[in-house]
Specification:
mainly alpha, two-stranded antiparallel sheet, 4 helices, 2 strands, 5% strand, elongated
C-alpha cells in the first residue's frame, strides 16, 4: 500500500468518524444522533493508517503529504494525529 492510499483511507475513516459523531445544529437541535462506538472505531482506524504512512515515509518526501494537507483544508498530518490522540487520553472523573 502506498502513502497516498494510506492517507486517502485515513481521510475516509475520518469522514466515517464525522458521520458517526452526529451533528448538532447551532440552535441546539440534533440533526443526527451520535454513534460513539462507531466514532471511536473510526478514529482508531484513521490514526493507525496515518501511523503506517508515517512509518513508510517519516521524512514526508512523498508528494501525497502535500495533497493530504490540501485535502484537509490546510491541516497537516501532525495536527490530525494530535486530534486523534486526544481521543486516547483518559479524562479523570
Amino acid at each position: 500500500m502506498t502513502v497516498r492510499e494510506l492517507l486517502q483511507q485515513s481521510r475516509g475513516a475520518h469522514a466515517r468518524y464525522r458521520h458517526a459523531a452526529g451533528h448538532v445544529e447551532k440552535s441546539g437541535a440534533v440533526r443526527e444522533q451520535p454513534n460513539d462506538d462507531a466514532a471511536r472505531l473510526a478514529v482508531v482506524e484513521a490514526y493507525a493508517l496515518r501511523e503506517k504512512a508515517e512509518a513508510f515515509d517519516p521524512s514526508h518526501d512523498d508528494p501525497a503529504w502535500g495533497e493530504d494537507t490540501a485535502a484537509n483544508k490546510g491541516v497537516p498530518s501532525a495536527k490530525m494525529m494530535d486530534f486523534y490522540k486526544s481521543f486516547f487520553v483518559s479524562v479523570p472523573a
